[in-house]
Amino acid sequence: MSRRRLGKHSAQERVLAGGVPHAVFTHLYLQRDQASFRPWAQHQGSVQHEDGIAGEADPKSSLPLIPSPYTQPQVLEYCAFCDRMVDDAVDALDLDSPSSGFWWYKMSKLEHQLVNIRHIQHHTAQLVDRLRAASGIGVRWASAGPTAATA
Hints:
The structure is a single chain. The chain is mostly helical. 48% of the residues lie in helices and 0% in strands. It has helices at residues 3-7, 10-29, 72-92, 109-135. Helix 2 packs parallel to helix 3 and helix 2 (10-29) packs antiparallel against helix 4 (109-135). It starts with a helix and ends in a 16-residue tail after the last helix.
């Protein structure tokens, strides 16, 4: 799907913009541990639920419940930011570590990365489903082309 085509549909922009706060976990979990995490410059951390999933409101808090929707240019900027860091971040991971580096995940670093990949796939499927439902736009299957066996 081209960026130009996406930009013509405000419903699609809202669908994608809403997923960005939750995608911060992909960025977070590419780090060695929580202390190593450095937020994106436009990260909205002063909210009750940074993941963008509205839970119960804290009646004692004056913070907004969830982040404001990001614009399409912000979404694209954050995607590029994450894309630029992936190779170096993966190379730096200690996949032999018995700890994920995050107290709330009681598993090895390798197992945690497999969970992270599955999490990305899960939310990608949700976004594709929402785009299709909102405006009938599908996402083309990415293929490496014919293999030697099928050529």
